Structure formats: structure tokens, C-alpha cells
Amino acid sequence: MSNQSVQTVTTSADKAKLAVAITALFAGLIGFYLLAGQTTLIRASVLIGGLLVAGGAAWTSALGQSFVGPSRKEAMQITGVVFGFVFVMALFLWGTDKLLEVVLYDLILGWR
């Protein structure tokens, strides 16, 4: 077997872009809350502006490009995990609902 290590190379420009993206994201969020006395339009504009700048800066980095563009195999795997989780959660909630129904109506109230 081969023990070759895979090393991801991230340039300092990509790191700077991600730093700008994180800073813009936090600036938009902080600006939204600091402008509590202003109109909703101004507050929302600051928040959306911060999100757009953060998204644009992240999109231009190599890490942002790889995050946004998963392969077909990765997308199918993620979709399968989501469907599996939703199915398990639906069964859990259905079971919890039925258990509470039996406890409440049959044991406590005696309506059935």
C-alpha cells in the first residue's frame, strides 16, 4: 500500500479573501444590531450588504469554489443522509405522538 499524503495548498491571497469574508459577515451582523434606532430598511441594507460582500469574497477563493461546487457523488451522498435523517426523525415524532396520545387519553383522562 502506498502511504502518500495529500496536501492542500492554500495561498495567502485565499486566506486574505476568507478573512475579508468573515470580517464582512460579522460587520454586517454587528451593524444590523448597532443600528437598532434606524429604520428597518437601513438595518436590512447593512445586513444584506455585509452578506453580499462576504459571499463575493468567499466565492473568489479556491476554498469557496470547492465548497459551492460539490461533485455529483457528494451531492447524492448528502441528499441520502438528509432523507435518512428526515425519515428517522419522522418515525421518532410519530412514535412520540402516539405514546403521548396513549398516556394522555387512555391512562390519564380515560376517554377511550
Q: What can you tell me about this protein's structure?
A:
The protein is mainly α. The protein folds into two domains: 7-69; 71-112. Helix content is 79%, strand content 0%. The chain has four helices and no strands. The chain is flat and about 70 Å long. It starts with 11 loop residues before the first helix and ends with a helix. The mean pLDDT is 89.
Flag low-confidence runs: none
User: Into which percent range does the helicity of residues fall?
Assistant: over 70%
Q: Number of folding domains?
A: 2
Give, in order, the helices and strands: HHHH
Query: Helix- and strand-based class?
Result: mainly alpha
The main sheet comes to:
none
Mean pLDDT: 89
Report the principal-axis shape.
flat
**N/C terminus separation:** 66 Å
Number of strands: 0
**Percent strand:** under 5%
Which features characterize this protein?
112 residues, mainly alpha, 2 domains, 0% strand, flat
Task: Tell me the layout of helices and strands.
Blueprint: H1 12-34, H2 40-59, H3 62-68, H4 72-109
Helix pairs in contact: 1-2
